[in-house]
Amino acid sequence: LDQQWHSFGFSGAQPLLPSAPVCHISYYEADAYARWAGKRLPREQEWEYATNLTQTPLQQANFLEQHIWQPTACSSKPNMEKLFGDVWEWCQSPFSAYPGFKPAQGALAEYNGKFMANQFVLRGGSCVSARQQLRSSYRNFFHPQQRWQFSGIRLAEDQ
After folding, report:
1. Domains of the chain
2. How many CB atoms lie within 10 A of CB 5?
3. Ranked by mean pLDDT, which of 29-33, 56-60, 72-76, 151-155 comes out on top?
4. Residue 156: predicted pLDDT
5. DSSP labels for 79-107?
6. Nearest-CA neighbor of 41 among 93, 94, 92, 96?
7. CA-to-CA dists, residue 151 to 20, 23, 69, 109, 113, angstroms
8. Alpha-carbon gap, residue 64 to 70, rounded angstroms
9. Residue 116 near residue 56 (C-beta atoms within 8 A)
10. Which of 19, 30, 107, 153 has its CA 20 to 30 A from that of 42?
11. Is 113 in contact with 103 (CB distance < 8 Å)?
């Protein structure tokens, strides 16, 4: 390849777009960057509250159905745009059960229980998530050291 930076995706190696969201990063990398920038990762409740406050329309998000299959650029102004689609956004919240949650009996009990330990919450979906599966309360979860597909970052700060 030439002397440019490239990223690898479904279309092979492509020139890196400086305005594209950072993706495929671990929780630790997201948290380290947030601290370096003097900010922090949002708490899960803050992220969900922001989606309801801004009433971000899912129809405008970059999901699987758009057939773009790579994160698209945000504007340069800091705001609450693109809360859905493009990249799953790490939250500083551990993935644990909501108050009152009781796992179903049988095989589902094992499925739910094993995921509620040592993982962190991601919100918002990605460019390869189906729109019909997402809503403001949808939670995803991964182990913090893993760089799962299209996991990215949103910064938060205290006023």
Report:
1. 19-152 (3.90.1580.10)
2. 10
3. 29-33
4. 93
5. SS---SBSSEEEEEEE--PPTT--PPSTH
6. 92
7. 13, 5, 14, 27, 23
8. 9
9. no
10. 19
11. yes
